Amino acid sequence: MEIRDLLSKPVWQMTGEEFIFLNRHALQGSETKPAQPAADKDKKYVYGIGGIARLFGCSIPTANRIKKSGRIDRAITQIGRKIIVDADMALELAGRKSGGRR
């Protein structure tokens, strides 16, 4: 059986043997390619004060205080009224302890 002939043939005209052969050939081709996780490379963003509140699980006034405190400033990009926050970086920055009581 020739792969090119089977690929050009409609499925409804194939015999069971031809269909299984084509299916096995397709599965062998997918096993040779390593799967790369795309989720690790994608950055996650939240938008606005409401997004910060959802990210930290707090109220909107508390999210506003977190933003104004300056702890997560490196994770925030603000253009006019639009606020974009890199979620992973903000969580990392908020988790770090800096200073403290004197």
TrEMBL record:
It comes from the Bacteria. InterPro entries: DUF3853. This is DUF3853 family protein. It comes from Bacteroides fluxus YIT 12057.
